[in-house]
Recover the amino acids of this structure.
């Protein structure tokens, strides 16, 4: 194996690390954003449930106000009733009072149902809020880990990029040009011959191609099938 190909294999190994590290610099922020979005969605759902609970409580309170108002009105009617002089008027007002008392009963029955609903909703909201507190603590811890990991990855990426610059300085310009052009299309650009097969696509190679691959000084011999440089 020529020195140029040996150096290119070091460059390729470095490029593999750079590709992986670069991918991580994209994936880690995406994972972080996804986790933050998921937490935000859960918080939004909890806030909606809390708003629904507040609305349900308001409905109960409104019924209480209405019942109180009707009861006060009944008291006034009964006071007025004592001043009536005719039986007909007395009966009419009695019917009014009975209707109002019936309405109170219906409202109080409705209030009991709504209060039961409020109790169940309050329990659910309390559980959701407790879950959010726990989930938020977990997510914040994970975000710190991802931030630390991202900083480490970026630092390592700079190291590998600097190492690549040092490595390519020792590679013949033409050899590097051929390698870079191939690496843009297919990676790895250079693969070994393994038991007569291409190390990239694992197809059997003609004997003359294998022979030529062992004699090349710079990467020029390619696989008949996948097109990668073979060595």
């Amino acid at each position: 194996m020529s020195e140029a190909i040996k150096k290119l294999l070091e460059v390729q190994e470095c490029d593999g690390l750079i590709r992986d590290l670069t991918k991580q610099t994209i994936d880690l922020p995406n994972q972080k954003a996804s986790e933050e979005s998921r937490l935000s969605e859960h918080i939004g759902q909890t806030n909606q449930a809390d708003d629904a609970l507040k609305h349900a409580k308001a409905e109960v309170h409104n019924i209480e106000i209405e019942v109180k108002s009707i009861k006060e009105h009944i008291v006034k009617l009964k006071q007025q009733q004592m001043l009536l002089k005719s039986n007909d008027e007395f009966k009419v007002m009695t019917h009014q009072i009975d209707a109002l008392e019936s309405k109170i009963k219906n409202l109080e029955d409705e209030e009991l149902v709504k209060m039961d609903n409020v109790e169940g909703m309050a329990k659910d909201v309390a559980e959701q809020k407790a879950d959010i507190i726990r989930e938020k603590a977990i997510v914040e811890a994970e975000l710190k880990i991802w931030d630390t990991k991202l900083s480490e990855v970026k630092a390592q990426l700079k190291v590998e990029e600097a190492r690549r610059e040092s490595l390519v300085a020792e590679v013949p310009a033409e050899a590097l040009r051929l390698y870079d052009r191939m690496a843009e299309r297919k990676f790895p650009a250079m693969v070994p011959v393994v038991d007569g097969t291409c190390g990239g696509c694992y197809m059997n190679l003609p004997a003359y191609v294998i022979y030529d691959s062992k004699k090349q000084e710079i990467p020029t011999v390619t696989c008949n099938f996948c097109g990668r440089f073979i060595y």
About this structure: The chain has a mean pLDDT of 97.
